[in-house]
Amino acid sequence: MSQIISLTPPLSDKTVLELRAGDQVNISGVIYTARDAAHKRLVELIGKGEPLPFEVRGAIIYYVGPTPARPGEVIGSAGPTTSYRMDPYAPKLLALGLKGMIGKGNRGKEVLEALQREKAVYFTAVGGAGALISEWITSSEVIAYEDLGAEAIRRIEVKDFQVVVANDAHGGDLFKEGIERYRSL
Amino acid sequence: MKTVDLNEVTGRVADLCGKANCLLGEDVIAALEKARRAEQSPTGRKILDQILENARLARDKNAPLCQDTGFAVFFVELGTEVRLQGEGTLEEAINRGVARGYKENFLRKSIVRDPLNRVNTGDNTPAVVHLTQVPGDRLSLTFAPKGGGSENMSRLAMLKPADGLEGVKRFVIETVQIAGANPCPPIIVGLGIGATFEKCAWLAKKALLRPLGSRHPVAFYADLEEELLDLVNRTGVGPQGLGGTTTALGVLIETHPCHIASLPVALNMQCHSARHLTAVF
């Protein structure tokens, strides 16, 4: 367990290259939410050569579809969703300069290769901790695809969002290393 | 004969949707606390702390434990001496309750009308309703919202009878290893053994309703549950798949007679947010 690293996007290549699988990171500042349906639309825009609804360069995307906010609240419960479903889309966003993704679960080979090629990083947050993570979100605004409801793209501000580097830009894989360390079958 | 008004069913269902999504069962909390004490990985312990803190926050703030408030699955036991009164079917009354409960309690609507065209129904209906008739004058409705992340990692295999007990064990270990970090471990393994293709999957889901820490009534299966739990925890998957000694909080088995040619086995994967609540009339 190392000390906790604080990060604020946009992230530079230099910052990303300093991160290693297993690092504990607190993210503060602006990040963007997107999951299955929003990714499909983003990649369709890329295919048509049209601009995306937010600046992808240096950005962090959080894979989440929150519950509706109750009156007086910023956002509902907002834990990470399973990331592999975004694997078919992620390399195209990484090629445009996306520097970080937050989700839960393992990534496929194409994404892991893209992390190294494009110098980016995959963070994992605690899946199922939706009520806790919503406490770290200080503002939320839908910026695209409102018709998708929970799947709309939101610009959210976070304060000390606790994540762990699961896959770094050097091929480090915390899932693989962690499981090997504790396997006794 | 007992008469139950379907409007009352709708009201109780709406109430169940709100409560079950914000309240983790005492059995799950006890299992998480036990796992926290035993977990060898420091990262794993931190994750288990966050999961327990999340459960406290959800309870105190009446907030959903997880943003995936699930597919609304119901296990209904309808007594032979219960007469339902009111408009339409029991399933329609349940669906009206789900629509109301998910709206009033600010729960996420996660159901699309068509699996390929994928337009959201907007009210989290339709529910999946499993109806069983039982003796007596009791109507019980167990609501078990099921998240997509863990459901996606579930598996079914039609083993050969010759595969036997060892085949079942291999299937469980393999399924847990393939799932890895995806189903939000620590998981609960619901295991159906026997019956037919479709009923085996139903058994696996039904198994998840038994409280964690309870022993299977048949000694052979009680021992098998313990052995499988030990094997699953030795995969090293650990909390959130980042490595550790807590991969599962429990293994729960349901069996049923099966065909001389078959050995169906189904694993319904349940995340740590194992929510279910029952209303009895």
Question: Can you summarize this structure?
Answer:
Chain A: GO terms for molecular function: hydro-lyase activity. The complex is a heterodimer of chains A (185) and B (281). Chain A is of the alpha/beta class and 185 residues long.
Describe the protein in words.
The complex is a heterodimer of chains A (185) and B (281). In chain A, 26% of the residues lie in helices and 26% in strands. Chain A is an alpha/beta fold and 185 residues long. Chain A has one domain (4-183): Fe-S hydro-lyase, tartrate dehydratase beta-type, catalytic domain (fumarase, Alpha-Beta Barrel), CATH 3.20.130.10. Chain A has a 5-stranded mixed barrel with strand order 2-3-4-5-7. In chain A, helix 4 (109-118) links the parallel strand 4 and strand 5 (121-124). Chain A is globular, with a radius of gyration of 16 Å. Chain B has 281 residues and is an alpha/beta fold. Chain B has 2 domains: 2-20 and 65-146, no CATH class; 149-273, no CATH class. Helices cover 39% and strands 22% of the residues of chain B. Chain B has 8 helices and 10 strands. Chain B has helices spanning 6-20, 26-38, 42-61, 90-104, 148-151, 164-179, 197-207, 219-233, and strands at 2-5, 73-79, 82-85, 128-134, 139-143, 155-159, 187-194, 248-256, 263-270, 277-280. In chain B, the strands form 3 sheets. In chain B, strands 4-2-5-10 form a 4-stranded mixed sheet. Chain B has a 4-stranded mixed sheet with strand order 6-9-7-8. In chain B, strands 1-3 form a two-stranded parallel ribbon. In chain B, helix 2 runs antiparallel to helix 3. The radius of gyration of chain B is 19 Å and the shape is globular. Chains A and B meet through helix 5, strand 7 and helix 6 of A and helix 3 of B. Chain B: Residues 12-279 form the Fe-S hydro-lyase tartrate dehydratase alpha-type catalytic domain. Chain B: Belongs to the class-I fumarase family. Chain B: This is Fumarate hydratase.
